[in-house]
Structure formats: structure tokens, C-alpha cells
Design brief:
- This protein is mainly α.
- The chain is about 70% helix and about 0% strand.
Length: about 425
């Protein structure tokens, strides 16, 4: 029954976006239809077709192994602080438990360096090109936004540099798609953090995060084109464009530049978490004081934290994507928390919910993994608008104008990806790692 709810939720979410569309009369239905079909075909292949299931497990196991290898440098630098929970070092020293700064953040540096190498040897441009051609040919959108959306599956804000020559003449709808794709997806270097956070509670988490990355890219295009349809004439409409790339001179330089970029990203993650966790704690303190007085006056027992308030807002959407009512409020709280505290904090809280057995249905955790997999939060909005504006300063006003709509589209895209995944949920070992 809940699979049917998830399937219906795909179209309810698109209908909600349609109600908020900037121009309902000019929506390109080819984009909507093919963007949805691509997601359904991919999910069907991964979760139902035996060959797809084997690929799913292979990717999951490969990522887990790579992360384990990546920990060699971390353990050398930080010793027992870098050991994951339950592990021992070669001298018999035991782990001190999960420490985010010493176990999760260093993996960003390793994966960024690895991605730099994969770009240098030409593997990533080739892989991104396959997805970009598919999006352009089937959905008939511009080659520039297709390339950016495809790049976002694997990398973060830096994917905007791949379309740098085309940014100056982009339409507002194209800008909305670029920003939406950036906030609806996650960089491969960041995926490592989520894997480390949830691997113990959810053994196949790595495969699901990769699956979510693939699903949210077309979902982002769909939601963006509904909320802000194309009314102009894109310069690269229907054309395949090659990524703009300043290639390093050597394998070593590519590795060093990737590691340097990863270090900046890790520092950025720390900065956001420190700042936003503190600000939200302050806001919760203020809300709690005012809410306690209001509860006393009206005889209520309501939780006035930002997480709870946003949880009420996202509660109907959580039901729409197929989360059982018994767990809907907990999951809606995580989705609301993601909007203000980033997805990293939400995944950490999801791990706690699973560890404590708070969730009544394994389906809930499964859908939460997909719904939370994206940079759809206020901090990311500032990062992406600022990052793209730095590449094309003359269009800063336009980027700022479409930014809030792109954040809404990105949020709906992550929910849509969860609904698509929920359509094929079966509780089998391939999904839950039993």
C-alpha cells in the first residue's frame, strides 16, 4: 500500500510545484515526462532487475572499501582518534568512538584528490558526458544546463566552472536549473561522510546514496522547469557542449589540487556546522522561552524548537512520499532540520533514531536516506549563488532573484527522489543489507 502512496506522491509533488509555477502555460511537458521516466527506469533497474541489484551491491562494497583504504592516512595522522567505532589499531588500541572531525572530515580530502585524478585521466568527463547527452536528447533542454546537472551528480559547486563560457548568456530558467541541480544533489566527496555516519546502522548506505545522487539530478531538472519554465531562447538548446576545463599538467598536480580543494571544503563544512548549530541553538532558546509562556496561556504542550516547527510544515510531504504515519513526524523533523542545519546533522540524527530503535518501520529510514540526500538548505543557497556569481558577476541580480525558487525546487526534488525509491521498496536484503 505504501508503495502506491509513494508512486502517487511523485505526481502530487509535481502538482504542488505546478501550483507555484511562475508561468503554468509554457511548461515544457516533454521535460516533465522524460525526467520522471528516467527516474522510474533507473529505480526499476536498481531495485528490481537482478543485474541492477548486483551493480548496486558492487558499488556499495567498492565505496566502503575505498573509504576503508582512505582511512590509512587519517589513522597515521590522528591515531586512535581516527579509528571507527569498534575497530582496533595494529598495536591493540581501541577506538574512542565516532569523532566527526577526525573520522569523517579527512575523507573529504582523500575523495577530492581522487576525483581530481579521475578528471585528469578523462574518466569523469567521459562519464558526465554520457548523462549530459541523455538529458539533452530526451528532455530537450540546453546543453549547458544538462552538462551542469550531470556534473552535479559527482561534484559540487565546482561543476559550475564546467559551463563557465555559457553563464553570461543564460536565461533565468537555466540559472534556476543550475542552482537547483547544485542544491538537490551532493558531491561525491561529501557522500563519504554520510557513509561513515550511517554504515553501522544501514550496511548498504553507500549504494543508496549513489542511487539517490542519480535520481535527484533528473528530479532537479523536472522541479526547476515546473517552478520556472523556459520562456527565453537558450544559446545551447538541444546542443551537446563539452565541459570547460583547465587541465593540470601532471598526475601529481591533479592530485595536489584536488586535495587542496578538499581541504577548503572540509573547512567550509566545519564552519557551517559551528555557525549554524550555534545560531539555531540560540533561536531555539528564544523560541522555547516564548513558547513556554504561550503553552501556559493556552494550555498547550507544544515543542517550539525550529526543528519541530519545520517538522509540522513538512509532515504532509512526509506522508505523501510514503513514510508510515507512525514515523512521519520523526522523519519530517529531520527534513525540516536539513533546511536550517544542513543534511550532515540530519543524517547524524537519523543514525541515532535507527540506533535507538525509535523508528517503527524500516521503510522510514530507507525513505529518509533519499529525502535527505541533497544540499537543499539555506547555507547552500548562499554558497551556490555566491559561487556562480563569482564566475559571472554581471548576473548576480538574476541569480539572487531565482535563488529562493531554486531552493524550493531542490527540496521538492529530493522528496521526489524519495518517492520514486519508495515506489520500488520491498524490504529485501538488497535494500536493507540484511
Amino acid at each position: 500500500m505504501y508503495n502506491l502512496v509513494s508512486f502517487a506522491g511523485i505526481f502530487i509533488l509535481m502538482a504542488f510545484a505546478w501550483m507555484l509555477s511562475a508561468d503554468r502555460k509554457v511548461i515544457n511537458w516533454r521535460v516533465i515526462i522524460w525526467g520522471t521516466v528516467i527516474q522510474l527506469i533507473f529505480a526499476l533497474f536498481i531495485f528490481v532487475v537482478p543485474a541492477g541489484s548486483k551493480i548496486f551491491l558492487f558499488i556499495n562494497d567498492a565505496l566502503v572499501k575505498v573509504i576503508d583504504v582512505a582511512g590509512a592516512g587519517t589513522r597515521f595522522i590522528f591515531g586512535r582518534l581516527a579509528l571507527p567505532p569498534g575497530a582496533k589499531d595494529e598495536w591493540g588500541g581501541e577506538s574512542l568512538g565516532f569523532i566527526f572531525a577526525f573520522q569523517a572530515l579527512p575523507t573529504i580530502i582523500f575523495f577530492s584528490s581522487l576525483m581530481g585524478i579521475l578528471y585528469y585521466v578523462g574518466f569523469m568527463p567521459w562519464l558526465i558526458g554520457i548523462f549530459a547527452k541523455t538529458f539533452t536528447r530526451l528532455m530537450r533542454i540546453s546543453g549547458a544546463e544538462s552538462l551542469c546537472a550531470a556534473s552535479e551528480i559527482f561534484v559540487g559547486i565546482e561543476s559550475s566552472t564546467a559551463i563557465r563560457p555559457y553563464l553570461e548568456k543564460m536565461t533565468l530558467s537555466e540559472f534556476c536549473t543550475v542552482l537547483t541541480a547544485g542544491m538537490a544533489t551532493v558531491a561525491s566527496s561529501i557522500l563519504a561522510i554520510y557513509i561513515l555516519i550511517l554504515q553501522k546502522q544501514f550496511p548498504t548506505i553507500a549504494g543508496h546514496l549513489v542511487s539517490a545522487s542519480f535520481l535527484t539530478a533528473p528530479a532537479a531538472i523536472v522541479m526547476s522547469k515546473i517552478l520556472l519554465p523556459e520562456t527565453g531562447q537558450p544559446e545551447t538548446l538541444g546542443l551537446h557542449v563539452k565541459p570547460y576545463q583547465e587541465k593540470e599538467s601532471s598526475f601529481i598536480e591533479a592530485s595536489i589540487n584536488g586535495a587542496t580543494a578538499g581541504t577548503k571544503l572540509a573547512v567550509g563544512v566545519v564552519t557551517l556546522l559551528v555557525a549554524f548549530l550555534g545560531l539555531v541553538a540560540l533561536a531555539d532558546f528564544i523560541f522555547a522561552g516564548a513558547g513556554a509562556k504561550l503553552n501556559g496561556m493556552l494550555g498547550l504542550s507544544m515543542d517550539w524548537s525550529l526543528k519541530s516547527l519545520l517538522g509540522y510544515i513538512f509532515y504532509p510531504f512526509t506522508l505523501i512520499i510514503g513514510v508510515p504515519p507512525s514515523d512521519a513526524f520523526e522523519i519530517s523533523g529531520l527534513i525540516g532540520e536539513r533546511v536550517i542545519l544542513t543534511e550532515t546533522k540530519s543524517y547524524m540524527d537519523l543514525a541515532v533514531l535507527i540506533e535507538k530503535g525509535t523508528l517503527h518501520d524500516p521503510r522510514s529510514a530507507f525513505l529518509a536516506i533519499y529525502a535527505l540526500c541533497g544540499f537543499a538548505h539555506f547555507a547552500s543557497l548562499a554558497i551556490f549563488v555566491g559561487g556562480v556569481s563569482a564566475l559571472v558577476p554581471s548576473r548576480t541580480a538574476d541569480l539572487s532573484k531565482v535563488g529562493p525558487r531554486a531552493l524550493l525546487a531542490a527540496t521538492l526534488a529530493t522528496l521526489m527522489a524519495a518517492a520514486v525509491a519508495g515506489t520500488f521498496f520491498s524490504g529485501s536484503s538488497i535494500l536493507l543489507g540484511k
